[in-house]
Structures are given as C-alpha cells and as structure tokens.
Amino acid sequence: MFQVRHPEWAATATIYEVNLRNYTPEGTFQAFEAHLPRLASMGVSIVWLMPIHPIGEVERKGSLGSQYAVRDYFGVNPEFGTLDDLRHLVQAAHVLGLRVLLDWVANHTSWDNALVQQHPDWYQHDAAGHLVPPVPDWTDVVAFDYSHPELRRYMTDALLYWVREADIDGYRCDVAGLVPTDFWDEARLELDAVKPLFMLAEWDELYPSGGLSWEQFNSDTKLLEKAFNMTFGLRLHYLLDHIAEDKQPLQDIDIYLAAERAKYPPSVYLMHFTSNHDVNSWDGTEYERLGPLALPFAVLTVLLPGMPLVYTGQEEALNRRLAFFDKDPIDWQDYPLQDFYTRLLQLKRRHPALRNGDTTSCFQRLPSPNEDLYGFLRHKQDAAVLCVINTAATPQMLPLPPETAGSWQDVFGDTLLAIREGDQLPVPAHGWRVLERV
C-alpha cells in the first residue's frame, strides 16, 4: 500500500523553511545564498523556499501580496531575482550537499493569472457562475477544478519545468489534500522519470490544515502511499500548543504517537515543528504560544520520530510575527540559538537510532514520577539517545531504568556521565537533558 521509496540521504535529513522576502534586507536569491554554508554547518539537509513565482495584483492583500497567489507558474518573481539567480542558488546548495524544494500552489491561482481568461472552465464556480476561493478568507485567490484533463496536463508540465530548468530536488505542495490524490500520483511518476524527487505535502490525515474546518478536511487522502515522501505533523504541533496552554496534559504525546502508528507504518515520514510561515504570522511566535516551553518542545520536534523543521529566524530566537503580505526583514544579529539547533540537528544526522522512517529503531517511553516530565529512549542495537523534558517551573528528577546503566555523553553539557542502576537524572526547570550512549 505505501509504495513511496525514500532516497537514502533523506534518512538523516532535517528541513529548513526559507521566507525569502524577509530573510534579508534585499529579499533576493543572491542575498539568501550567503546563508547556505551556515545552514549546512547547522545540520540542515533540505532547504524549502516559499513560492518564487510572480504574485497577483488583483485582490492583492497588503503591499506585496501573498506568495501563494500565483500569477504565472512558469515565471520568477522579480522581487527575488531571475531564473539564473535561482539556478545559481540551487547549484550552490548542491555543492554543500543541500537539497532544494520549491513551494508549489497547485490548488488555486491569483485572480489575474492568465489561465482565468484563457481557460475559465478550469476553475470552480458558484451557482451564479462566479469564481470562488478555496476557503472564504482566501479572497486573493480562486480555486481550480481538477476534473479537466487539460488542467492536469498543464500543471504537470509546470512541475516538470522547474526540475528541468533549475535542477530542484522536489516540492512542498500547498494544501495538497485539496487537490485530487490521483493527480499527484500520476505527476509523481513523470517527475521521477526526470529525476528522483522528495515530495512534501502540506496536509496531515490526523488534523486539518490551516484555514480548513473539520468538514472541509479529508482524513483519507492516501497522499503518502504513492505521491509524497512526507506530510506535516499538524496534530503533534497543535498538541504541543495545547499542552503549553494547559488544555491537555504532557502525557497526551503518548496518545498522539499511538494514533500516528495506528494510521501509518513506521516507514512513513511526518514533519514536526514549533513554527512555520503560517504559524508565525497568524498564530504567533513559539514564544507567544509556548512561552518557557519553546525550547524544550523544539527538542521534542527534533528527537521524537519524524523529520524536524526549522523555520526562518528560529536560530536567531526571533520573537516577532513576520508580516505576511509586506516587506518585514529579519535583523540578524548573533544567532543566539545557532548552537542549540546545531547540537540537535547534528545529533539527528549522525545517530543511527534517530534515522527517519527506520522500522528497526526502537522507541521506549521512560516512566515519569509526575506529569511534568516526558522522557524516552531511542535505540538501535547498542546505539541509544535518551531525551527528557521538564515542563515544570522547578527542577525535577527522572528515575532511570536499569537498561540506561553505562556511559553517556551529555549533548548539551559536553560532559561524560556514568549512570548506575537506580540513579536519577536531574532535569532543569523548563529544561531538557539529551544524552548519547558512548
């Protein structure tokens, strides 16, 4: 049933989302390219660029508009540079061992996309014959109707174009579950015939994507069976928000992991995060939503089974919402969380027990003496990582089971620990401990 083959490099991969418009004062491909070596050294494997296409002007929101209101699928937004600039960025990424995904909006276009005039039948209409947005609030875009084979051919050709012309390595596909799965299944076959790609769907069969109600949500898309390597882990993301708000207990992570395993085999990839472009702009920064648990929960998103995402500015400890429709550049300073993410992502990259989609790696919950601690072991043969977080405002002690006896490296403390049977591990207030068996 689940037939997608993951490339070998993806087993140790971490993904980083680039808000190109606000990444630098220039907001260009060229200016962002200078950051690639830093991201590679941090342990990033995949660079996901938010949409790079020209943006619609009709019904535009804000001064610059949403990057998800595509006016031309074959064009480059001059705000960002040229096609040659994009090619140069991709080549530079490849030299560093990075892969590049383009954000793809297949479900809808801007009102002034030429297709609206050339092929009005390709779009959805209401009973009065008017074009309609996919979601009422998305007033700057209009929805496609994928019952037309000609539209499917056009969209597949557009996807193929960027693989051939810019040598990209895959796509992040916006609200992928609103587009028929058989379109993605067929397009994936043609894309892989050119170059094996990595495909990420903005969807989670366990939780509705942003902007959608439960009624609009399809929990049985089968996107991960043939078309996509990975979907968003939205249910875990919102669970972490709810835990921080005291709406759900920390131990409900176990309920989530059981639901994930009931839905998918261990070989499936889900992407976990504390922020992304939608979350930052509309729900708030991780510091607004998670408060003192922002960093402990970031530890969880990296070390729980799944692929971690880091969003633009998280390594800068960016504590403001970025404007979605206007220029709002980040003022990069001294990257205060660069070391934090580097330690986590490099551990993720090198450790055999943390590989994505590994059916032979074991996840073992560690019993907690109270509701404020959540700890687990991930181990494969003799290799193991121990992780525990503390959501309490006071230090806590975690009793360690006999199988943890031995020598461990403290990933954040740069010290060796000799754990004996019956020992307890101190965990700081609103903190974490990450140990690697040596």
Structure notes:
This protein has 438 residues and is an alpha/beta fold. It folds into two domains: 8-358, Glycosidases (TIM Barrel, Alpha-Beta Barrel), CATH 3.20.20; 364-437, Immunoglobulin-like. The protein has helices at 20-23, 29-33, 36-42, 83-95, 114-118, 149-166, 181-194, 223-226, 234-244, 252-263, 277-283, 286-290, 294-303, 338-350, and strands spanning 15-18, 46-49, 99-104, 108-110, 141-143, 170-173, 198-201, 230-232, 269-272, 307-311, 362-366, 373-380, 383-390, 396-399, 406-410, 416-419, 424-427, 432-437. α8 links the parallel β7 and β8 (230-232). α6 (149-166) runs parallel beside α7 (181-194). The radius of gyration is 22 Å and the shape is globular. The protein starts with 14 loop residues before the first strand and ends with a strand. The model has no long low-confidence stretch (mean pLDDT 97).
Biggest sheet character: 8 strands, parallel, barrel
Query: How many discrete structural domains?
Result: 2
Give the overall average pLDDT. Answer: 97
Strand residue percentage: 15-25%
Task: Break the fold down into its secondary structure elements and pairings.
Elements: E1 15-18, H1 20-23, H2 29-33, H3 36-42, E2 46-49, H4 83-95, E3 99-104, E4 108-110, H5 114-118, E5 141-143, H6 149-166, E6 170-173, H7 181-194, E7 198-201, H8 223-226, E8 230-232, H9 234-244, H10 252-263, E9 269-272, H11 277-283, H12 286-290, H13 294-303, E10 307-311, H14 338-350, E11 362-366, E12 373-380, E13 383-390, E14 396-399, E15 406-410, E16 416-419, E17 424-427, E18 432-437
Parallel strand pairs: 1-2, 1-10, 2-3, 3-6, 6-7, 7-8, 8-9, 9-10
Antiparallel strand pairs: 4-5, 11-12, 12-13, 13-18, 14-17, 15-16, 15-18
Helix pairs in contact: 6-7
